[in-house]
Amino acid sequence: MVTLNIIAILLSVSIRNPMLATAPFDYEYRMGIRGANYNITCLFERENGRYGYGDEISYIRKFKTLHTSNIKFTSYVRETKDLNTKTIDVYSKHDNFEIGLSLALTDLEKLDVLPYLGYKSKWLTADLRIAPQRIISNVLAEYRYKISKHIQLHPFLKYCQNNSKIDYQGKVELEYLI
After folding, report:
1. pLDDT tens per residue, range 62-104
2. How many structural domains comprise the chain?
3. How far apart are CA 33 and CA 10, in angstroms?
4. Is the residue at 83 inside a domain?
């Protein structure tokens, strides 16, 4: 049985001028929960007059075997960017580096087995899955500033690529610590 011990509740709201002059202002509402080994975030947005839903889900499970192994599931969906990528990575961690294999499902139709390379430090996370005719990469720079016992700010910059489809975000989330 999997139990989700919630560490934080996340919330951010953004309003921005659209890139298209004929569209009304764009917005994004983002909310979610975070635990020690998972993150679940949903967003509702309008970008350049197009409405959409998105989600970012990740879950990491560590196994003690002959070598310490990890399994990581991620889902990244942004309807307004036509991005829908799901990956299962099986990797071994060596210091800050991760190496392994990835099962990648794109747009719920193309399944690939790709080599997986990752890097994780205190404020930077990056991963790359690459093969001929196929690139999936993610870069996340983040830091959490504690404001009070239960509140912290979480500014982050994120870049996601699935072949020619690219999404980038710069946000500040407010987190309520439980």
Report:
1. 877 656 689 999 999 988 888 888 999 999 988 999 999 999 9
2. 1
3. 6
4. yes
